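Researcher: I've been going back and forth with a colleague about how UPF0237 protein TTHT_1725 might be arranged in three dimensions. Neither of us has a model we trust, so I'd like an independent prediction. The organism is Thermotomaculum hydrothermale, in case that matters for your notes. Sequence below.
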Amino acid sequence: MDREAFVYKITEIIFKHFGQYGTDSVKQCVRELVKTIEPQKELLEGSSEREDKDTAIITVFGESKPGIVAGITSVLAENNVDITDIAQTLLGKNFAMIIIVDLSLCSKNFTELKEVLIKKGEELGVAVFSQHKELFKSMHRI
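Model: Here is an independent structure prediction for UPF0237 protein TTHT_1725. You can compare it with whatever you and your colleague have in mind.
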């Protein structure tokens, strides 16, 4: 599966389960994401534990409109977070984005950064989820 198809598949699963950002389907969504990610594990392997602690995966989804990418990436820039990879896709009017970031120079701790991203997401009308790469890899092993 190429990168675009991978992002598209993850987006399909997120919208299928969250619809209007409901939280009851989180566990099921994670299970499906893990199954989808299984063939793509090479994207998450090959880095040291130190790199994993400094790397996070941010997912954003909601109804597409101008300013989502700019809004989220400006928060990252303001906090000295380096974007190492970014992909976005549309499913009809629905927008999804996955960002892999380097937190090694971040001016906030990860919890504070997550809160700022969630707040910005609320302003933009999108949901934002952030997790360390090591947690993402742990979920992948489950």
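Researcher: What would you highlight for our discussion?
Model: I'd start with this: The two ends are 22 Å apart (CA to CA). After that, consider the following. The domain at 3-141 is CATH 3.30.70.260 (Alpha-Beta Plaits).
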